[in-house]
Automatic annotation (TrEMBL):
The lineage of its organism: Bacteria, Bacillati, Bacillota, Clostridia, Eubacteriales. This is PocR ligand-binding domain-containing protein. It comes from the Bacteria. Residues 10-171 form the PocR domain. It holds the Pfam family HATPase_c. It comes from Clostridium sardiniense (Clostridium absonum). InterPro entries: Bact_2-comp_sensor_kinase, HATPase_C_sf, HATPase_dom, PocR_dom, Sig_transdc_His_kin_internal.
């Protein structure tokens, strides 16, 4: 996470404050910007009387900060605005501010009531209800909060997202440019040392591809740990930290190397355990790998990237969750790995982007296209990944590895 001092070098806080004030003036809603801990980064704009009164108490302030921290992390994981109800039942929207895959904070707006009853509430709080009962002003102010049609809330968070994306674009492009220059220098040195040009190019591409994969992957896990620490008073942080250490150790030591399928599956199981802790019974998994292919050598993190995409894009957005199935079998001279989920599926437009590499920024979809391209370079055109998906039914991903390279 970035410090507030460093944030001011990456993003214009004063400009963000000015935009926030203007949006509050135009919409009549409350706006504020918080860091990853849920603590304010600037001055509030147009807060309602209920929230002012709530934050005037130590207990109320703590509840608000925890709710903002939780919602901001959820928005960062989803990488889009997150609509939620605070512990008091008022609707807020958290829009994440993400620079170069680092979640640095979120801009919040809302403090209203709406006509959508399906919005998730951030941990219903008995303490919040006690505060309202003890303080007659809070009950009065709550009854006076605005009621806004949900469609208007959706329109406003789309507008806020546009402002945020434009504001961070310059900072993100500069950071990506610096990273690209560094990687180019590193690649040139490696090519000079190794006479086998084709082999070194493949290894370098693997390193360059794994870097953004690992950053996105580790960010999601760290957000989950932070989420648990804030919301659940850290009863399972030790367990998740242990899994995270194993995952980071595995990914860092195997960059540019090959591992056995069995080793990679063990790492995948660790990752799935982390997701099971985060999502509870919403995420289930079943693994069945033929014993005859467990010793084949593959590139590490390849399967995990597709599994992460399946959970993030397919199962996590589904209210009741679902199951991911991982199967491995022998077909003629190849090992076939099938990753199947019963999630919400991938739209035709997004699937077209994934298969054709139409991305302007570093995303999970872009990484999947890069890995697919790398598999073709390593093994041949017949090893291109196959993806089939249907809305609200699920997605099937089929990956092949040669038994004898």
């Amino acid at each position: 996470m970035y410090s507030i001092k460093k944030l001011k070098n990456l993003i214009d806080i004063d400009l963000l404050q000015s935009i926030q004030n203007r949006l509050a003036e135009i919409t009549g809603l409350a706006f504020n910007i918080v860091d990853f801990r849920g603590e304010p980064m600037n001055e509030y704009s147009n807060f309602c009387d209920f929230c002012k009164e709530m934050r005037s108490t130590k207990e109320g302030m703590k509840l608000c900060y925890e709710a903002n921290a939780h919602a901001g992390l959820e928005a960062a994981i989803r990488q889009k605005p997150y609509v939620f109800k605070c512990p008091a039942g008022l609707v807020d929207v958290a829009t994440p501010i993400i620079i170069n895959n680092h979640y640095i904070g979120a801009i919040f707006f809302g403090q209203v009531r709406t006509n959508n009853e399906e919005i998730n509430i951030i941990k219903e709080s008995k303490d919040c209800m006690k505060l309202i009962k003890k303080n007659s002003k809070l009950k009065k102010y709550y009854d006076e909060t605005k009621f806004i049609d949900y469609k208007k809330i959706e329109s406003i968070h789309s507008l806020v997202s546009i402002f945020i994306n434009q504001l961070v674009e310059k900072s993100e492009l500069e950071l990506i440019k610096e990273e690209a220059n560094f990687n180019n220098i590193k690649l040139n040195r490696e090519l000079q040392v190794n006479k086998n040009l084709k082999k070194e190019l493949l290894i370098s591409n693997l390193k360059l591809l794994q870097t953004p994969i690992n950053l996105n992957f580790e960010l999601n896990i760290l957000n989950s740990i932070s989420n648990l620490a804030v919301i659940e008073n850290a009863p399972r942080v030790k367990e998740m930290s242990h899994y995270l250490a194993d995952l980071i150790r595995y990914s860092s030591k195997n960059i540019g190397c090959e591992v056995t399928l069995e080793e990679d599956i063990e790492n995948i199981i660790t990752y799935l355990k982390v997701q099971s802790i985060r999502f509870g019974n919403r995420i289930k998994y079943k693994i069945n790998i033929d014993e005859n292919i467990k010793d084949i050598k593959i590139l590490p993190m390849v399967l995990l990237s597709f599994i992460e995409y399946s959970i993030t894009k397919g199962l996590a957005p589904k209210i009741e969750g679902g199951t991911i199935y991982i199967n491995g079998e022998v077909l003629e001279n190849d090992a076939i790995i099938t990753i199947e989920d019963d999630g919400i599926g991938i739209s035709e437009n997004e699937l077209f982007h994934i298969l054709n590499g139409i991305y302007n920024e570093k995303t999970i979809g872009a990484n999947i296209y890069g890995i697919n391209d790398m598999l073709v370079n390593c093994y041949g055109e017949k090893y291109r990944v196959q993806i089939a998906s249907r809305d609200n039914i699920g997605t099937i991903i089929r990956i092949k590895f040669p038994l004898n390279k």
